[in-house]
């Protein structure tokens, strides 16, 4: 452990060593001090990023793919040291961390394969028509090109997969953008290990100095400086609504506004339709007790709102769910701040008008731990109180009882933007409630049928994002291969000579990628 | 002429008739009064738009294609009445208006064909793998879905092609979004004729009431109310930096921030490289005199900045250009405000340190007309004065003389975001200046070789937009078929039954569109 900030291939020991990470399970500060980045460190990292962009943006997709694969290899090479650091700093169990490491490597390899496939650049060629009347048509070719240096804010709840070399970093590097990571203060050692791995991979694969930097520091001040820096061209963030909105507003107020892709969580409503609920009352309750408490409820897609129609089955569902929650294990949360917020936000929700606690697990709470709970409220009370749509990050869920289908309609219409909305229903149910399903589609990035929202598949069809306030920009995803599109913009080349065109747009199509040529999809040359 | 506001299929005569358009060529107010929309009119239009979205977002691509084609037919049916109204209200000549009508109809038909082609929705299917270890993989399918009601601010400089039924309206309607147009006060009669045509087309093709509305009023107040209305989900605008930024900031400050796609113009730098300039000195000067004065310089892509290296050829180029400008025809501008701004902004530019007027056409200026002018400044003075990067909308261009290649490098590095940057050079030139070309690419949406920036081809490879301040969002275009992507967002469907999927994602692929299925591009079924 060196405790220094990483400025490209160099380490800076300029800062004062004041930062330490915390072991939430033991409730104690960990050994090892990390230096907070100085103004010169920040300036040096951003200057290197800008210079690196000149050459990095011109690297071939194959070269960038090799870089990403090398990062995955170097992460695996860190072996148990990484696994133990991440476990200590997050209180997550070994199986989860090993799984998350696999996901992190999988994401890097997914983007490598996306680069080789090449279709993501949306190469579009309209060839010249010199004899067109009244005016000749020029040759115009368009593709996505990288946007510039990206600042990545790492997330607390995925110390690997949404952190230093997580989805944001992987997709930004894939697109051709240098990355400057703001290390999460909860995972300083994990960050150092992974940052060093990225730097080794960059050197081994011949990437420019400055393609990757990592800075630590007091969150708000460091974050503000990075977002406001003129060399920064985009920001990625996963975390709270308050945190995301603070960055978003800062970025908009710059002389040159820049995009902030903030995924700010949601309450992920689940609608239990009557026939399905009747047929599988207890099974549904057990399945959802598992989803609510999975990973101590610390997922962006945790089901925080369960909605059903007034009925004997719903009462029975609540009873079984209450029982399951009461007997669920208590566990340590990611850090002290999150544990305290969970207690506070749960209490706030429970004291709202009409909200009744129906179950809380009664095991002894570990230090920095969470007691899972579920509560119930009438749709009438829910509809009159926007506070009940605030996310309670952790194992807590509110059950909303609707009088009838038309009140369910009202509840859906009044929902704010969500990452996911789920319908549990058999075919008959889904036909009866088709109007409500279409209405729900307008509020969400992902519409799930007969599953749980926890579990976000990393693939090309995944949309992890949604209408505000789930995310700042519903047109992009932070999970899956399309995450790369956040960091690219279309550039048209008019009458360009072949040697000045990127390979993706050359006549001979050297990479054999799929392109639109004069309106026809083809992987042939022109 | 009825002078009423259009609320879907109904006309409202609630407002007070206080608005009149102007004939800039005759410098007189035109006959005919138009009513300013009342608060109730605005509320009625926005409510209808929200309700219409429910059904309009579920229409088939074929139905929407028929609607767009019907709009084109109805516009043509307006015949000479439309052509004369647009000519009187804009001072543009008949040939231009007839051409622009053709372009407007062409755009509508382009989007109709895009809808039938279907690839624009980016349909992506990952089929289930129930036996995957450690966890089964669900079926996930994703496509672009419409974002909701769009408010369109019409542009002054294209009374048809960027106005009531222009590119913004056509692309928003194509995506499945209802449109509410804020009529341009310069083109109130043109707007009424076209709005009535759109409504007729909507009724004939069975579209819902509220799919289209048009409101007139004092610009700022009406615009503010529309942008802040909770039913508005996106805004499109073409015009000045000040106007665009005002809307952008308003939209960001809403409880639910929404995207504003503002194309705010640019100075479209043109770099004349030495060998080409030497070989074609006078021809280049003549070509560019034509581009600077085309349409009285009233194009977003007007070349406002010409850059060359200190040389005898550059002096000769300036001399010929000066001669051409001096003898160019003076002409009426689009409206009084634009004519006054042109005079003022030109004077401001001419009084900056080191700027020397080298030519101004000396014919008598018509009322509301423009005298074309070109001026010259050293790169040293240019680099020290950011004011010289402000757009002067109209026939004015500033020639920047660089000492050498490295100063040219500095000038390019210091450019703000542009719609276009053009290089005029032979093969040798382009090889010598390759670094500067790559540097320029970072500053622009479109990179042009050996052509003029005026003339924006409407096609799938066009990027009309660029880094800020050319546009508020460099990742989207306002011209060409990709303009539709501004008004759509990805939605994932997980484990959805076939009957609840949009046709684009159904197994049998009823429309035969190209899709990604398990990573393979195909137009077959699953």
Q: Briefly, what is this?
A:
2 copies of one chain form a homodimer. Chain A has 16 helices and 25 strands.
Subunit arrangement of the protein: homodimer
Span between termini of chain A: 54 Å
In which order are the strands of the major sheet of chain A placed? 17-19-20-15-14-21-22
Please, how many helices of chain A? 16
Strand and helix map with partners:
The structure is a homodimer of 526-residue chains.
Chain A: E1 5-7, E2 10-12, E3 17-19, E4 22-23, E5 28-29, E6 34-35, H1 39-56, H2 61-77, H3 79-90, H4 94-117, E7 124-126, E8 140-146, E9 150-153, H5 167-175, E10 179-182, H6 188-204, E11 212-215, H7 219-228, E12 234-238, H8 241-252, E13 260-263, E14 269-272, H9 274-279, H10 281-293, E15 305-309, H11 312-326, E16 331-332, H12 336-350, E17 356-360, E18 369-370, E19 373-378, H13 379-383, E20 396-402, H14 405-414, E21 418-424, H15 427-432, H16 434-441, E22 444-449, E23 488-494, E24 515-517, E25 520-522
Parallel strand pairs in A: 7-24, 9-10, 9-12, 10-11, 12-13, 14-15, 14-21, 15-20, 19-20, 21-22
Antiparallel strand pairs in A: 1-2, 3-6, 4-5, 7-8, 8-23, 16-18, 17-19, 24-25
């Amino acid at each position: 452990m060196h405790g220094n900030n990483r400025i490209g291939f160099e380490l800076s020991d300029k800062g004062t060593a004041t930062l330490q990470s915390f072991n939430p399970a033991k409730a104690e500060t960990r050994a090892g001090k990390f230096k907070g980045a100085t103004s010169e460190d920040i300036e040096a990292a951003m200057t290197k990023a800008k210079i690196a962009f000149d050459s990095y943006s011109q690297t071939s997709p194959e070269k960038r793919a090799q870089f990403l694969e090398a990062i995955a290899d170097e992460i695996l090479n860190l072996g148990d040291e990484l696994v133990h650091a991440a476990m200590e700093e997050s209180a997550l169990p070994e199986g989860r961390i090993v799984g998350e490491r696999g996901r992190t490597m999988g994401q890097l390899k997914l983007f490598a394969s996306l680069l080789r496939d090449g279709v993501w650049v949306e190469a579009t060629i309209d060839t010249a028509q010199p004899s067109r009347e009244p005016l000749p048509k020029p040759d115009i070719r368009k593709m996505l090109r990288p946007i510039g240096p990206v600042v990545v804010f790492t997330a607390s709840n995925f110390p690997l997969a949404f952190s230093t070399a997580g989805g944001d970093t992987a997709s930004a590097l894939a697109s051709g953008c240098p990355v400057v990571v703001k290390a999460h203060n909860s995972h300083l050692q994990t960050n150092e290990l992974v940052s060093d791995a990225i730097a080794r991979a960059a050197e081994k694969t011949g990437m420019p100095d400055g393609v990757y930097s990592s800075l630590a520091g007091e969150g708000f001040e460091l974050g503000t400086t990075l977002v406001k820096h003129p060399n920064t061209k985009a920001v990625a963030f996963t975390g709270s609504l308050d945190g995301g909105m603070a960055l978003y507003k800062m970025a908009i107020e710059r002389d040159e506004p820049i995009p902030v892709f903030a995924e700010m969580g949601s309450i992920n409503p689940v609608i239990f339709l009557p026939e399905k609920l009747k047929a599988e009352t207890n099974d549904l309750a057990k399945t959802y007790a598992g989803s609510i408490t999975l990973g101590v409820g610390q997922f962006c897609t945790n089901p925080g709102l369960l909605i059903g129609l007034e009925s004997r089955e719903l009462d029975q569902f609540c009873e079984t769910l209450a029982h399951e929650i009461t007997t669920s294990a208590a566990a340590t949360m990611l850090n002290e701040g999150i544990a305290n917020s969970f207690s506070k936000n749960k209490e706030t929700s429970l004291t709202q008008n009409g909200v009744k606690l129906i179950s809380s697990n009664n095991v002894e709470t570990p230090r920095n731990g969470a007691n899972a709970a579920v509560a119930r409220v009438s749709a009438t009370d829910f509809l009159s109180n926007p506070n009940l749509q605030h996310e309670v990050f952790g194992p807590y869920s509110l059950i909303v009882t609707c009088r009838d289908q038309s009140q369910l309609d009202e509840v859906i219409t009044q929902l704010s933007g969500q990452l996911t909305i789920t319908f549990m229903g058999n075919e008959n149910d889904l036909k009866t409630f088709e109007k409500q399903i279409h209405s729900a589609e307008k509020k969400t990035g992902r519409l799930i049928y007969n599953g749980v929202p926890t579990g976000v598949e990393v693939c090309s069809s995944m949309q992890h994002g949604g209408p505000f306030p789930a995310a700042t920009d519903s047109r992009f995803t932070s999970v899956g291969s399309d995450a790369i599109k956040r960091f690219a913009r279309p550039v048209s080349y008019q009458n360009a000579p072949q040697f000045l065109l990127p390979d993706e747009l050359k006549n001979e199509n050297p990479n054999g990628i799929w392109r639109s040529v004069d309106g026809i999809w083809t992987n042939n040359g022109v």
